[in-house]
Amino acid sequence: MFIAGFPAAALGTNCYVAAGDGPGGACVVVDPGIGVLADLDALLAEHRLTPVAVLLTHGHFDHVWSAATLCADRDIPAYVHSADLGLLADPTMGLPISLAQLVGPGREYTGLVEPRLVSDGDVLELAGAAFTVDHAPGHTGGSVLYRTLGAEPVCFTGDVLFEGTIGRTDLPGGDTATMTASLRERLLTLDDATVCLPGHGARTTIGRERVANPYLTGLAAPDTRRTGF
User: Fold this and answer.
1) Tens digit of pLDDT for each residue in 35-44?
2) pLDDT category of residue 224 using cuts at 50, 70 and 90
3) Beta strand ranges found along 38-194 (DSSP E)
4) Is 172 in contact with 86 (CB distance < 8 Å)?
5) Cα–Cα distance between 25 and 156 in angstroms, integer?
């Protein structure tokens, strides 16, 4: 699988493209954040890629900001878990601050129209690849992982797991006990070779995080590790 990406200038949210058949064909876009469209267009042109869908790991504004425009311009769908539909409609939901305070003045947010909903265990056949959806709440109620197999198994972890740390649980929809369960049951069950592509920061692997991430080292994984769909 071909994967490329870059961090958004605003808040450093990673935007990825993934193409099962390599450059020159169809791809999915994962988490198009704030102000990414020009850089995304350049990346797509460089690798001759055509987006066929947007995958949203969760509904926070810094991960979904450009999704509506991208979907409208390209006439493609976006996929998200139903538990985060409220965040898509109102990026300040539950917060005591305004949108301008979040992202600065002059930015206008456009919500998605009729996104496609994903559920735990769904397999999305897109862009020459199969993406398995794992519901992994804790950062938000609708946080999901998108996993795909290949010579190198890959998991887009959004803001559930980062290199050396995890997503915060003190925002609306977050819950520490739920996050702990997601880490134990959804991530620690994956094969050590699984490459994790987080919503912020550098790529890592399950094996590395299992032994070095302080939020994981004290958790015991269930007996069965998941290597397939």
Assistant:
1) 999 999 999 9
2) low
3) 50-55, 78-81, 116-118, 123-126, 129-135, 144-148, 154-158, 161-162, 165-166
4) no
5) 21
- CA–CA gap between residue 73 and residue 184 (Å, rounded): 39
**In the numeric block, which tokens belong to residue 24?**
């020159």
Amino acid at 190: L
CB-side exposure of 123: number of CA atoms within 13 Å?
A: 8
Whole-number average pLDDT of the chain: 92
* CA–CA separation, 162 and 205 (whole Å): 10
pTM above 0.85, yes or no: yes
E-strand ranges in the chain read 2-7, 14-19, 26-30, 50-55, 78-81, 116-118, 123-126, 129-135, 144-148, 154-158, 161-162, 165-166, 195-198, 204-205
Q: Where are the alpha helices (DSSP H) in 113-198?
A: 176-182
Q: Which segments of 50-163 does DSSP mark as H helices, in order?
A: 61-64, 67-74, 85-89, 99-103
